[in-house]
Amino acid sequence: MLAGLALLWVVEASMGREVRLVAVVLCAVLCAATALRRRAPEKMLLVVTAVGLLQLVTDVGLNPADFAMLVVIYTCAANGARWSSWLGLVGGLCAPTIAAVRWPPEAQTQWQTVVSVCFMTIPFALAWVLGDSIRTRRAYYAQLEERAARLEREREAQAKVAVAGERARIARELHDVVAHNVSVMVVQADGAAYVLDAAPEQAKQALETISGTGRQALAEMRRLLGVLRTGESEGGEYVPQPGVEQLTDLIEQVRGAGLPVDFKVAGDPRPLDSGVELTAYRIVQEALTNTRKHGGEHVGATVRLSYADTELDLLIEDDGRGAGRELYETGGADGLGHGLIGMRERVGMVGGRLDAGPRNGGGFRVSAVLPLKPSR
User: What is the 3-state secondary structure (H, E, C) of 345-372?
Assistant: First the structure.
């Protein structure tokens, strides 16, 4: 477009007087600089500056091709090096004044010339301001993208740390369960040895207990494999971990803390693997803890424990304002786990399924299905 306007100017000028070759060359150079400004804005700024100086020297007056100076100044302000942006601003602000001195307008008073120069300076200033604002906005967006990427990396790192910590804690608890079972086996074995001759039936029952406890301990050890324990001190007293039977005490504690809980058990309760018992207890504990933390005032919760033939169904719901899934994912830094991350790790360790998320109409819902395998 600029080349077309420059060509029209050349044709119109050639009708009234002879057009010098230098004017045609300078117009062509300005058009070329406009076309190449995005590839090399700094170099094109130097080119148009040199062309402007040649116009002053060779007395080639103002023409449409000079619009290239505006375009190049805008490009340098938006994309060029910082020095080229400032050079373009200074050159643009000085160009109208220099042109007015070199080619003073005819039939204009001094004040009219000053006003005309001011109006001619405004487009150069606006071109620079617009380009610089685009540069600033682009830098701001780039900073936002970099910050978002950094936060995403930090979130992933925190999630990995949470998973590792949760697995280590699960490993400790499962290790305690296995140690407890082994201690039971030792006590039963000692008892069987004492009554082997005097009471064979009692010895038989002790051996059956040892067999069942051993199978249960072996199952827990298999789940324990693959879970990395790091930085844990050895030794200490091994105690049995809480299970489904302790849920009543947990519910009473939560009620005493001010959270109304409706607790019901359906189906036929029966002994379960220690790992399943512990997982069920911790899921209920974690869900009620999150309800107290995020549910708000006047919140109530329901806990349903259902025994099926092969599965244990857990359903924990609250009617509070709840919190976003992201908060449950990364929250729960209360000594009992890390929200849904810890729940998923626990359920996965026993081969179960977990479904959790906000309820329609408010509140939060946690549903877990744990495989049942009666203890012997």
Answer: HHHHHCCCEEEEEECCCCCEEEEEEEEC
| Interval 126-164: pLDDT, tens | 999 999 999 999 999 999 999 999 998 888 888 888 777
Residues 216 and 261 in one domain: no
Beta strands 353-358 and 364-371, pairing class = antiparallel
Between 255 and 336, where is the model more confident? 255
Residue among 101, 96, 105, 147 at smallest CA distance from 124: 96
Average pLDDT in the 18-31 region?
Answer: 73
In a domain, 131, yes or no: no
Q: Which CATH number covers residue 201?
A: 1.20.5
Q: Is the separation of the CB atoms in 345 and 167 below 8 Å?
A: yes
- Environment class of residue 298 by beta-carbon count within 10 Å: exposed (0-12), middle (13-18) or buried (19+)? exposed
Q: How far apart are CA 365 and CA 195, in angstroms?
A: 52
What CATH number has the domain bearing residue 357?
3.30.565.10
pTM of the model: 0.44
Owning domain of residue 14: 2-104
How many whole angstroms separate alpha carbon 10 and alpha carbon 17? 10
Q: How many domains does the chain have?
A: 3
Conformation bin of residue 260: beta by default, left when phi > 0, alpha when psi is -120 to 50: beta
DSSP characters over 305-353: EEE-SSEEEEEEEE-S----HHHHHH---SSS--HHHHHHHHHHHTT-E
- Tokens of residue 278, six digits: 């512990």
Token pair of 161, please? 């740390």
Tell me the three state secondary structure of residue 58: helix
pLDDT in tens, 267-291: 888 888 878 888 898 899 888 888 8
